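Slide 14.
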Amino acid sequence: MSAADSPVKAVLFDRDGTLVHDVPHNGDPDLVRPVDGAREAVALLRAHGIRVGVVTNQSGVARGLISDGDVRRVNRRIDDLIGPFDVWAVCPHGPDDGCHCRKPQPGLILWAAGRVCAAPADCVVIGDIGADTEAAERAGARGILVPNDRTRPQESAAAAHVAPDLLTALRALLTGPPTGRILANERPIEAAYGPGPASTGPRTAADDDGRPGPAQTPSATAPGRGVFRPGDATHRDGGAARGSVVGGRRGRSS
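Slide 15: predicted structure.
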């Protein structure tokens, strides 16, 4: 199947908890650990001519916990291990900054879709929390939730489409747009994910960049390069932006 034949033109992944194991406000490339199947999933999409990108909230920048350079280095490591990705969209803002890019706002999704020349309706956003799928819905894209042990049960229950892992989600996508809330080969939510960790209390915006919090305007990172502020046309290092952006991301750790 070629990109022209596929109902999906681009897949945009959340970063922490979806492509790599979540390390709160990670600024160390050595701590990057891809989730099972991430590399194979991205390779499968590329083999079918489908563009791939990352949309991620990284509020640690606004909070002074990590720098733009830290984000670039971690993204470069992810690109090396899992990519290459066609576009990186990073929101460096905090929950109260009022930007339009921070998920669950749609800014990052819209910006990334534009960078890969795809209409939002032809894009799929894959993430592990409700803010990811909500951002997709607001942008007019399709969202798929791939839960992990930090996904809230109510997020799984509310998601339009749920898959147990990345490969299951993408194999289903390659056969056509999602048509049911449980994708192929998935067990019922209760059996697949359980009630969620009882010891984990409600997360706040300080813990989870994906919820709640005002919107933001996308700031981007070109793959392995840097964070762009809204309106930047080129990378801070002086290079052209392979993925200049106007957006933000979620992140329990971001």
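Speaker note: The first strand starts at residue 10 and ends at 13.
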